[in-house]
Amino acid sequence: MTIPDKSKKVTKLKIKPTIITRDQHTISRAAISENALKVLYRLKNAEYKAYLVGGGVRDILLGREPKDFDVVTDAKPEQIRELFRNCRLIGRRFRLAHVRFGDELIEVSTFRAAHHVSDQGEGHTEDGRIIRDNVYGDIDDDVWRRDFTINALFYNIKDFSIVDYVGGVKDLEAGQLRLIGDPAQRYIEDPVRMLRAIRFSSKLGLNIHPEAEKPIGEYAALLKDIPAARLFEEMLKLFMGGYALQTFESLRHYSLFQYLFPQTDKLLDTQERDYPHTFIMQALKNTDQRINEGNSVAPGFLLAALLWEPMRVIADEHIANGLSEMEAVQLAGDTVVSRQILSTAMPRRFTHMARDIWTLQVRLKRTKKRAIRVLMHPKFRAAYDFLLLRAQAGEPLGEFVNYWTKEQLEEPLAGKEKIKPGYHKPRSRRRPRKNQNNNSADS
Is the pLDDT of residue 6 over 60? Predict the structure, then answer.
């Protein structure tokens, strides 16, 4: 891996952007969040520059409904906070202003400029990577700090035009994903850009430009240095956006999946197209279907699916050494999770859900024994859907699937409603109150 010479200074020439006037593009204020418009207009009325930028502009141009709206301005974070009572400043690496309107959050950032020696701590790089990025500039500085051309389109609230410095509109029309600047340098500055390239390519159906594609193999190992917590956040975006199956295949193609789930990736390398691969493909397909139908998705269930085979391999070893199946699954679950969080630091509520799903797989094979207690488990529905998923992937579990489907229909405590896949919203069961007059040892 070749690290570019950091001693060389690259001076960006200020170029004249392409201005796409209101009558030449399809962005309408009706497609922009009312709260985002409030932020834009208040900044404008305070005589600051104000632009909608990034995914909001990109998605509207593609005919998609944006999930969020980001604003960029020449106002400093403290000046933004003075304008909005509902504003909170966050971040050290990137200083941002979050303006909240109920459930909606509008992210406002200040134009950033290139790093120089005289940044006096406001900007800092280490081995070419950006560690701190609070060097402020103007719009023609800020555009070069963005990653992809399609994310560097600015919608000007002043005259409703689109400001395009880097040919982002043409790239959208051509269906290609292109990095701004030298791809190798951009990946070194922030290796997560390689994962973002996969995400945008899968999400938007774009082809990664050959110049952006070529360095991925050389610089992929830089992802090892990214904090595990940040990789977890990126993992959620990759697999919980409704295009997880395509994303998984791309991550495997570019050998990036190993930096998110190394244990699973190692097994897939030796069992390609066998059960583990089929099971993961089915899990991701079902996840995409739920999201596209507007249903919720639990990261804990997805985690259980992606780590199922590594857990089972270790559990089989413990069983061969004389442990019971339940003990083996519990011990293997602890081992797999402790290894996984070294790569992607997952909150305990998600890892606990994965462990519950795994241990309940053992209990779901014990039909007619303590069935009511199993049905009452808070994670029963997630475990039941996991059992269905295993059967769909080819495991001979039809007997158990039919039994637990029937039990849910017949058991009064489970309710009489029709059984539907609902693993992402486990049923909450209120425990019956104990008799306050009962003086037994259990009360």
Answer: no
- Counting other chains too, the contacts that 226-234 makes at CB distance below 8 Å and 24 or more residues apart are 226/191, 226/192, 227/345, 228/341, 228/342, 228/343, 228/344, 228/345, 229/345, 230/192, 231/192, 231/259, 231/260, 231/343, 231/344, 231/345, 232/344, 232/345, 232/346, 234/192, 234/195, 234/196, 234/199
Which one is catalytic: 68, 119, 316, 334? 68
**CATH 1.10.510.10 corresponds to the domain 16-174:** no
158-167, 281-290, 420-429, range with the lowest pLDDT: 420-429
Q: How confident is the model at residue 410 (pLDDT cuts 50, 70, 90)?
A: confident
Alpha-carbon distance of 79 to 75, in angstroms, equals 6
The predicted pLDDT at position 134 comes to 64
Q: Is 140 labeled as catalytic in the residue annotation?
A: no
To the query of whether residue 225 is one of the catalytic residues in this protein, the response is no
Place of tokens 């008799």: 435
The answer to whether residue 103 is catalytic is no
**Catalytic residue, candidates 147, 164, 288, 356:** 147
Q: Are 252 and 264 in contact (CB under 8 A)?
A: no
| pLDDT for res 235 | 97
- What top-level class would CATH report for the domain 250-414? mainly alpha
